Amino acid sequence: MSYRVKTGYRHLGPALLCLAGLAAGAPAWAQDAAPSSNATVNLINLMVKRGLITRADADGLIAQAEAEAAAARTAVATPAGAGTAVAVPSPDGTVRVQYVPEMVRKQIRDEVRTEVMAQAKREGWATPNAIPDWTQRLKFSGDIRLRYEGDYFGNENANTGEFPNFNAINTGNPYDVSDTNPNFAPQLNVDQDRERLRLRARLGVVAQLGNGFSAGVRVATGDSNSPVSTNQSLGGSGGDFSKYAIWLDRGYVRYRAKMTDALDVTVDGGRFDNPFFGTDLLWDDDLGFDGLALSATYAVDKELQPFAVLGAFPVYNTDFNFASNQPAKFESHDKWLYGAQAGVDWKFAEDYRLKAGLSYYHYENIRGERSSPCLVLSAADACDTDLTRPSFAQKGNTYMALRSISPTADNGNGTTDQFQYFGLATGFRELALTARLDLAQFDPIRVTLDGEYVKNLAFDESRARTLGINNRAPTPDGTTPGEFEGGDTGYMARLTVGTESLKQRWDWNLRFAYKYIESDAIVDGFNDSDFGLGGTNLEGFLIGGNLALNENVFAGMRWQSADSIAGAPYAVDVFQADLNARF
C-alpha cells in the first residue's frame, strides 16, 4: 500500500511531535470521525481536527489513499507475469510514499520525536518559562586556596631602625621625627621568623547582556584592602574565630565587538583584570585596574596577530573635604596612571610561538612634593602636599619628607613636634619590554620562557640623592646618611616546564625564575607581594611546581629567596605550600 501527501503542507515542530505520536494509533479522545482500518485515513482525519488541513482537502486525500490501497490489493492478487498492475495517476504537487512496516515506522517516529525535542529545548518552545531567561545569561565561578607560609629572615639583617614602615605612617598619624621623640617610627619585621596558615576565597559572576555587552562582579577575602593580596591569615583579624572581611575585588562592564573579520575590540570600564601583557615583575597577579581600557587584536592570518592596549586609571582621588579640620581646603592632588602597549603574537613555526609587547606606563602626580611652609602643632594638623604621599606601599622605593614645618616658639624653633609624612622622592615613567617564547615540540610537555625588562625614565637620581632618606649605604656611626645606592632598572627571566594547563589528574609543571628590581625601577605598591615579601630593591630566585589532583584541584609548592640590593642588609626566604580548588 502507498499514500500521497501534498508537498504544500509543511508543519512546525510541535505538529511533528503530535503526528509522530499518532503514527502508532491516535488516542480515542482525539478521533471525531469513525475509526478506519486504514491508518492513513485516521491520520488525515486527525489533521483536520487539529486544523492543519481543511475537510475538502482531507476528502480528496482519503479518496486518493483508498484508490491506491485498492490498486495495491489488485497488484498483490495478480500472479507474477499475468499482467501489469493498474497504475494510479499521481496528481501534480504530490509525493509518493511507499508502505512502511510498523517496526520501521516506530523507529522513524522515535527519531523524529528526539530531533524535534532537541530543537524545542534549544529554541525554548518545548517548556516555555520553565527556566527564567536571565539565569541562562549568568556564569558563576570561584576558587579557594589554602596556604601554609613560612617567612625566614637572614641572620645579618639590620634591625636598629633601618626599615621604617612608610605605609603604616602614611596611612595613619604622621611621625614626629624630632630628637625629643623617644619612640622609633613604625618598623618592618626583618628579624623574627613567622609561620602562617592563609586562606583565599573568591566568588564571581559574569552576565551576558547581549549585543557584545557583559558585566562582572567578584568578591574576595583579604587581611586588608591591599591591592596586591587577597590572602586572609587564619587566626588574624582579631582572632578567636572571628569572621573575616569580604572585599569588592572586581566590578566592571565590558563591550566586545568584532569590527571586521580580522579586528576584535574590547572596552572595559570599572574594576577589572590587568589588560596588559606582562609578568609579576611589574604587576601582582591579584592586582585589579580601576578606570577604562581599550584593547584591540588584528589577525593578519592564523599565525600573526598584532595587538594594542590603551588605558587610563585613577590611582588616587583627593578627599573631597581635604583638609577636613580647616575651612579653607587645599588643592587637589589626583594621581593617574596612563598606559599604552603594542605587541605581536606570532606563531613563526609549527611548534614555536612568540608573544612580545612594548609598554609605557606614565604616572601623573605620584611624586612627593615639598609643602609650603606650614605650622604643625599636633598629629591632627595638615599641610598642603600631604596627599602626595602614597595611599598604599610595600617597600623599596626611595622616600622623602613632605612637610616644610616652620620653626616657631611653639615647636622649640623646630626641635619638637616635627610631625612628618613621606612621599616618593622621584617620579615614575616606566618603559617595559615583555616577551614569551612557547615551545610545543615536546607536546604534551610545554617549555615556556618569559622575560621582562623595565626602566624608569623619570628617575631623578639627583633629587633622590638630595632628599631621599633611605636606600643609602650604611655608615660606621649609623647616624649620618651614607651615599645613595638606589637605581632605576629591573628585569626577570623565568622558565616553565610541564603541561600547558592543570586540567587533568597528574598534570604538572615546574618553574624557575630570577628577579632583579632596583629601588625605583617601578612603583613598589603594585608588584608581586610574595617575592621578598613584596616591593622593590630586591634580587633573588624562585623555584616551584604544581600537580593536578583532578580537573578542579591542584597542589603547589614554592621557595623564594631574596636579598636587598641597596641600603641596609636584608634577606628573606619564603616557603609556600598551596592546595587550590576551583569551581
Automatic annotation (TrEMBL):
Gene3D superfamilies: 2.40.160.20. Residues 1-30 form the signal peptide. The keyword Signal applies. Transmembrane segments: none annotated. It holds the Pfam family Porin_5. It comes from the Bacteria. The keyword Signal applies. Keywords: Signal. This is Porin.
